[in-house]
Every structure is written in structure tokens, then in C-alpha cells.
Amino acid sequence: MTALFALATALLWGLADFGGGLLTRRMPALTVVVVSQTIAVVVLGAIVIATGAWREVGPELWYAVAAGVVGPVAMLAFYKALALGPMGVVSPLGSLGVVVPVSVGLLLGDRPGVLQFAGIGVAVAGIVLAGGPELRGAPVQRQAVLLTLVAAFGFGSVMALIAEASTTLTGLFLALFVQRVTNVAVGGGALFVSVKRGGRALPEDGGGMKVVWAALPALAFVGLADVAANGTYSIAAQNGPVTVAAVLANLYPVVTALAARGVLKERLRAVQAAGAGLALVGTVLLATG
């Protein structure tokens, strides 16, 4: 069950990142974060009310609040990186955040088997190689890499926090709701400050709100896919070793890279293709170990 939910997480995060990356090429990244997360808040709010999850308020929800504070910073940095650099390069580097939940899992007593340890090593090596040798590239590429590393640490922290925010399914709904409300509050505050300082909240190509309204289905998909990914990851982490769940979930760059290859015709370098292959080998070792 851990492998199944973790791989579902990878699929959802990979598609959400691809959609978010496309949207930030048409509108400001903060607007993408705030609107997509607001849609998620509405849907999760309805689920919380329908399931009575609001009754499970407890101190563990502070983990969800912390995840909600860190999440917008990570998403903003990541979406800006996706707008600057090739998705097939940025997305794999973003998954380096796997170091955070894996470290937490080991500290909490996770002891994967020999095959699983081998799988973790192979998968992480594959993820790094899939990023490509971009640090020696142009200034824009270097900026994209630095933003991605900031996002990676943030994403890893969110994974570790959200896994501790609930112990039941209805509790998970409430934790995700609290996380997204915090996301909107933090992201909305940042957007307000940005506009006050002369930044943009709407596309400057003349479309304005029409562009945002037209993109609502895509924004909804990004927000809801991200929420679903957090949910499936939490379930995976609670039903098996966090180390295994985290590494499998962090295979999402393969999904993003494949989507970018299929839709945007981005070409992967040989080292990136080799990295993707190693990541898949690591997945097999983890799943069979």
C-alpha cells in the first residue's frame, strides 16, 4: 500500500508541477499559487463539513499550519524556476527535498531492508543526474537552479510536516484544509505586498482577468492535484517506512519531464535520460524490497 500511494503521489505532483509551470508563463507565479490554493480551500472546506472532520481539532494541526507557511514559499520559488528553465531540468532538482523526510524517517527509527536502501541510493542518484549539468550554464539557468534548491528544501519540509499532522482519514482532510487556508493567507499577503511595491497580480499581455478566468480549470487542476498528492503521501507515510514513501513520491520529476517532452517537445540530454532510468530502477528495488 505504501508503494501504491507513494507512486500516486508522484503522478499527481508531476502533473501539478507541469500545469503550474505552464501557467506561470502566462501569469504571475504568486497569482497561480493564490488562486489554485483558494480553489482547493473551497473544495476541502466542503469535505471537512460533509465528513465532520472539524471535530478532530488537536495540537497536531500546528504541523499543518507550519506546512502551510513553508508551502507557498516553496511553490513560488519552484514556479519561478519552472518559468525560467526547462521543466525537464528544474523538476528533477526540486525532488532533492527528499533528503528532509528521509532523514526524519531514519531519525524516527525507520530501518529499510538492504534492497530498499539500495533502491534509495539508486533513485536519489537518478534524480540528481536527471537534473543535468546546469550549474555551468547561463545566468538564467543558474538562477533557476538556486530557486529550485530553495523550493526543494521547502517541499521536503512540507512532506515531513504533513505526515505528522494527522492519524486518521478525516483528520487528514482537516489537516489539508488548515494547510491550504494558511497557504492562501501567506500567499495572499505576499501578493498584496508585491502589488504595493509595483508588482503585477494579473497578466500584462492585455488580457487581465479574462486570462485568469479562462485558466480557472487549469488552476483548479493544479490546486486539487497538489492537495491530493499531499493526501496520498500522508497515507503512504503512515502505512509504511517514511524513507520508502518519500523516495517513491519524489519520482514525480519523471512525470513532469515526460509531460514536458510530450507536450512542449523538450529534449533531454543523455545524462538526464540515464538519470530517469536509474530512478525507475530505484523504484523497482524499493517496491520489491
Outline the structure in words.
The chain has 13 helices and no strands. With 289 residues, the protein is mostly helical. α4 packs antiparallel against α12 (252-264) and α8 (169-196) packs across α10 (216-238). The chain is globular and about 55 Å long. The mean pLDDT is 80.
- Rounded to the nearest angstrom, the distance between the terminal CA atoms is 13 Å
Q: How much strand content do the residues show?
A: under 5%
The 3D shape can be described as globular
Q: How many beta-strand elements?
A: 0
SSE string, helices as H and strands as E: HHHHHHHHHHHHH
**Low-confidence sequence ranges:** none
What number is the mean pLDDT? 80
Q: Count of helical segments?
A: 13
Helix content range: over 70%
What radius of gyration results from the CA coordinates? 18 Å
Largest sheet: none
Given helix and strand content, the structural type is mainly alpha
Attribute tags:
single chain; 289 residues; mainly alpha
Put the structure in a nutshell.
It is built from 13 helices and no strands. The chain is mostly helical and 289 residues long. α4 (87-94) runs antiparallel to α12.
Fold blueprint:
Layout: H1 2-23, H2 29-51, H3 61-84, H4 87-94, H5 99-107, H6 114-130, H7 139-162, H8 169-196, H9 209-214, H10 216-238, H11 242-249, H12 252-264, H13 270-288
